[in-house]
Amino acid sequence: MAQIFPFRAIVPEPAVAAAVAAPPYDVVSAAEAAALAAGNPLSFLRVSRAEIDLPADTDHYSPAVYHQAAAAYARIKRDAPLRQTPVPCFHIYSLVMNGRRQTGIGAVFSVDEYDGDIIKKHEKTRKDKEDDRTRHILELRAQTGPVFLTCRPSAELDGIIQTTLATPPHIDFTAPDGIRHSLWRIDAPAACARIQTAFAATPALYIADGHHRAASAARVRDTLRGTNPGHTGSEEYNRFLAVCFPANQLKILPYNRVVHDLNGLTAKQLLEECGKRFAVTPAAGPTPARSGLIHLFLDGAWWALDAGGPAAAAATPMDQLDVSLLQNHLLAPVLGIADPRTSSRIDFIGGIRGTQVLEDKVRQGEAAVAFSMYPTTVEQLMAISDAGGIMPPKSTWFEPKLRDGLLCHDL
Questions:
Q1: Whole-angstrom Cα distance, residue 261 to residue 250?
Q2: How do residues 37-67 score in pLDDT, each as one tens digit?
Q3: Most confident range, picked from 136-140, 342-346, 378-382
Q4: Where are the beta strands (DSSP E) in 313-380?
Q5: Are 102 and 87 in contact (CB under 8 A)?
Q6: Which of 29, 38, 77, 220 has its CA 20 to 30 A from that of 326?
Q7: How does strand 397-398 pair with strand 252-253?
Q8: Beta-carbon neighbour count of residue 173 at 10 Å?
Q9: Partners of 143 in the β-ladder
């Protein structure tokens, strides 16, 4: 069973929610964060990317950054204001992008269930990123950005969501990127109990996005438990902030790749090596039409790599992923990128940026070759998570993304 808990959320006043809410800290650079927050003292990027309010030469991981984040959180709480709900509650969180709606339940979830793999992972985390968010949470004594969870569809959860959507939202605004964000508060004890009962029938939850936030919440729990001689297990630090969406509402975009050099090969030699591993034909455009097709941009032209043979021979759901086929049959053996997590020769381009950026990087000499991928499916993500597998890095790009600052969890 999966546990879900209402909590006393820190939420902006409706009139300032649009000004406070900000993209997740990990999808914008410091320069992009500074530009987005310019002229807006309430932007939550001043909390999640606090280095933007410090001198330009400040180390992004220096103590000054975390102190600045805590000061900004306190100031925005006061000035916006952000208010704590009077009683524990759930929030229904709806996002609408290009006319498509996805709706989930904002709550706190059990760190013990994260440790026990009832909340399943599909991605390895990096220690430096964990260190960063762990320090951020400890300095603020708050989780200020939700983990993005998913679960298998449930008729009971769908009924709760649809009933709620028929009522006016508490917060409702359209962000500058055109995505509409709406929140409904659920605090009636009977309604909260109904949500908890529905989740109790759910055997597992899955992290879609936010592995570093979840791992950092577990490390914070360990730290605070170790300094609390009266630890009972019911403290707020035993739970982490997340929004959980039914899997059938989610959309995954591709996560494309560019490689900076050809590992000593000419363009002709690379195509010859591709031909030994894939069926290679000229591509009509940059976007693969199905799983098993990878499109390659090289020397001014798009080529289709059909992974029919390698895909058929793949032994596990993880090996069948298009990103795995590319990694195992081309990136590692031919281009010499054995570990894409640590290699400086490869970059990853989220699907929201489109495919033109791939061509541009190659044409402008920033990359030697680009790969346009077919998106991983939610079903593949859950199958690999259920099997205890770990996907290659940057296998999924979920869109739309939750905004930081709409729901915070003080510890």
A1: 35
A2: 999 999 999 999 999 999 999 999 999 999 9
A3: 136-140
A4: 346-350, 369-372
A5: no
A6: 29
A7: antiparallel
A8: 19
A9: 409
CATH architecture of the domain with residue range 255-374: 2-Layer Sandwich (3.30)
Q: Which residues pair with 119 in a beta bridge?
A: 205
Q: Is the four-CA dihedral 69, 114, 82, 42 of positive or negative sign?
A: positive
Q: Which long-range contacts (CB under 8 A, 24 or more apart) does 310-318 make?
A: 310/277, 310/278, 316/387, 316/389, 317/380, 317/383, 317/384, 317/387, 317/389, 318/384, 318/387, 318/389, 318/390, 318/391
pLDDT tens for 104-152 read 999 999 999 999 999 999 888 888 899 999 999 999 999 999 999 999 9
Residue spans of the domains in the chain: they are 4-251+399-410, 255-374
Number of H helices and number of E strands within the chain? 14, 21
278 neighbors 305 (Cβ within 8 angstroms): yes
DSSP codes, 3-35: -EE-B--EEE-GGGHHHH-B--GGGS-HHHHHH
Nearest to 17 by CA among 183, 150, 141: 183
User: Given pLDDT bands bounded at 50, 70 and 90, which one contains residue 314?
Assistant: low
First to last CA, the chain: 25
Look-up of token digits 């593949």:
380
d(CA 335, CA 345): 10
Contact 36, 108 (CB under 8 A): no
Which amino acid is it at 236? E
Q: Given CA atoms 128, 132, 133, 139 in this order, what sign does their dihedral have?
A: positive
Nearest CA to 311 out of 297, 290, 296 is that of 290
282 pLDDT more than 70 = yes
Q: Take residue 295 and report the two structure tokens written for it.
A: 């499109």
3-class SS of residue 82: strand
Q: Which amino acid is at 210?
A: G
d(CA 129, CA 388): 22
